[in-house]
Amino acid sequence: MSGTGLTRTQRLFVRGLHHALQLRFGGSWLVVHEESMATLGWARFLKFLKDGTMMVTELTKRFGEADAQFSVSLAAMWNGCGVCSYGHSLAGSLLVFRDTGRLHPLCPEVIDELQDLRNDDAAARLDTLLAGEEHAQLRRIAAQMYALRMGRVLPRSVDDRVIEATSRMWDWYTECSIVVGMTLRPEDASCQGHPVGRDTELLARYGQARAEERSGS
After folding, report:
1. What residues contact 99, with CB distance under 8 A and at least 6 apart?
2. For residues 45 and 43, what is the distance between their CA atoms, to the nearest angstrom?
3. What is the DSSP letter of 118?
4. In Å, how far are 181, 182, 201 from 174, measured between CA atoms?
5. 71-110, pLDDT tens digit by residue?
6. Per the confidence metrics, is the pTM higher than 0.90?
7. In the chain, what are the helix, strand and coil shares in percent, each to the nearest 5?
8. C-alpha span between 88 and 80 (Å, rounded)
9. pLDDT, tens digit, for every residue of 133-154?
10. Alpha-carbon distance 135 to 3, whole Å?
């Protein structure tokens, strides 16, 4: 049951947070934040909110808005949690669609497919999906994140350290939301981490474009 294990004060706080995030970003995270609060407790939950916001800000500064969102999506994907992996890939996809009119290859449905593959197969599939000059930066981020995660390379630059820190942060966080994350369907993803999720007209146009893509029209 939603909210199980929370004190009344924790439940009220999480619901207030949920309302504030809906106003800023659109979407819904009530269940996952209730689960996170119940698992982490006050101090660690608030620390993640603060550190996660700072991490997205740093990623955006270094890689731009869309690739920052995709970076978080990939960090969560490797831990098998749909909430952040779907939600941040949706945010990134919406940003790309808004700015270029193109559909990005890393939509929630594709992230879902990647989660069903063995790690090396998923990494290889990512490399193929992100072929092309327009995806060169994200392709490099994805490859480096996986190599760092698997211990195949050591961080050598500030970018490497930011990528590695992102991976570690979302590994730690998604452990507490894995129940919700494992049951969420990609088509039910809520846009996370960017106000683009409030643009209902954009969401409608994006949804129509994805439907046409799936139907081959």
Report:
1. 66
2. 6
3. -
4. 8, 10, 31
5. 999 999 998 888 889 999 999 999 999 999 999 999 999 9
6. yes
7. 80, 0, 20
8. 14
9. 999 999 999 999 999 999 999 9
10. 40
